[in-house]
Structures are given as C-alpha cells and as structure tokens.
Amino acid sequence: MQESVLSSEFSSLPDLVEKLYRLGTTKNYSEGDIILDENASIRAIPIVMKGMIKVIRTEEDGREILLYYIKSGESCIMSFLGGMHNEKSIVKAEVEEEAEILFLPVDQASLFIKEHPEWLDYIFRLYHKRFEELLDIINAIAFKKVDQRLLNLLCKKSEITGSETIITTHEQLANELGTVRVVVSRLLKQLEEEGTVKLGRNKILLLKKDNL
Q: Do the beta carbons of residue 72 and residue 10 sit within 8 Å?
C-alpha cells in the first residue's frame, strides 16, 4: 500500500521511490498528534502516506487559524522551505485523522533537487497548490462573513474525507476559523434550522453542499 502512494506520484522514477523509502523513516500517528510545532527546528520533510494533516498558524493572542490540509501523497511545502534555509517552523502541523508519515531528512530532500528534476517539479506543484489555498484563506478572511467561512470549511472537510458526516467539535471548528466557540455554536444552530446541517455529538451531517 505504501509503494502505491509514491509510485503513482513518481511513476517514471522507481529509483527515486526506492531512495525515499530507504532514506526516510516511517511513523504512525493518531488524531490530534502534533508532528511539527511552531518555532521547532525542521530536520525532516514529512510526506503523508496515509491519513491527513492540517497546518495551523497561531496568532499572538493565542487564536489559531487553519491554513491548509496535507493529504496522502503530499508534503508540507513550508517545512521544505524552512528546512532548506535552516529556519524554525512558523506553523504547526497536527494530525487530522490517523496518519502514516514518511520523514525525509532535509539534506536528502535538497540533494534530490539536483539528482531528480521530477522531485523539483513535485515541490513546485505543491507550492502552487498551497499558494492558491492561502489566497483563498486571505480572500475569505477579508471578504466573507464567518457563517460563509464556516460552511466553506464544512464543505472542504466533507470533500477531503469523502463523507457527509464530519467528525469534529465546535471548539475545533472555532480554532480553525480563528474565532470563538460560542460564535460557531450559534452559526451551526442557525445552519441546522435552515436545513443545511444536522448536529450530533462531536459530529455534523452536511445536508447541503452549497459552498458559498
């Protein structure tokens, strides 16, 4: 199962795939585990083999905001760039759902750029995707109301997990949106009254996928 993830990403580079497994270290994590914290040294680049990670930025007042998700077959471009320049991490990476992660030492990730142009292309594609997602975040914060951002987040979670049932808490959603729990609870109740969602204990059933 492991090989299918990297082999599909680097289908024409069996040597690179072999090196990734040989030089990297695979670890398993549970939901809620922190694999990289803010201000931590970046010694390895994480490649998600299974599961999903969310990347979060913490503000000075302690509030958090979700930047993007890292899915199977993807890596954290911020870890790569920070590691390349020997900088501390400016984000936190938290396991969203049970994950298996391959950690590639930073020096090897840099060496691959010279040896395999396709590796560099992989990094650029991730950079482009993350850049677009961050632009969406900026646009949402600047121009959309919290209720629109909440519904967008629920739709995004449903799309990523492939399920209309979203396992989460009001507190988690508030952290990801950079707001407070009471606001999220009020808006979720409003969405339920509108027939958009059905609320349960630590779960939300998305009835309408109108991504505003």
A: no
How many angstroms separate the CA atoms of 106 and 42, rounded? 8
pLDDT recorded at residue 102 = 94
What is the Cα–Cα distance from 151 to 197, expressed in whole angstroms? 9
- Predicted local confidence at residue 74, as pLDDT: 93
In this prediction, residue 2 carries a pLDDT of 45
Q: Name residues of the chain where pLDDT drops below 50.
A: 1-3, 211-212
CA distance 142 to 63: 17
- Look at residue 182 and give its three-state secondary structure: helix
Q: Name residues whose C-beta falls within 8 Å of residue 51's C-beta, 6 or more positions apart in sequence.
A: 29, 72, 95, 96, 97, 98, 99, 100, 101
Specify the pLDDT at position 47. 93
pLDDT of residue 195: 92
Q: How far apart are CA 50 and CA 186, in angstroms?
A: 34
- In 7-133, DSSP assigns E strands to 25-29, 34-36, 44-58, 64-70, 92-105
Contacts of 75 (CB under 8 A, 6+ apart): 45, 46, 47, 48, 122, 123, 126
| DSSP E strand boundaries for 81-191 | 92-105, 165-167
CA dist., res. 148 & res. 169, Å (int):
18
Sign of CA dihedral 112, 113, 118, 120: positive
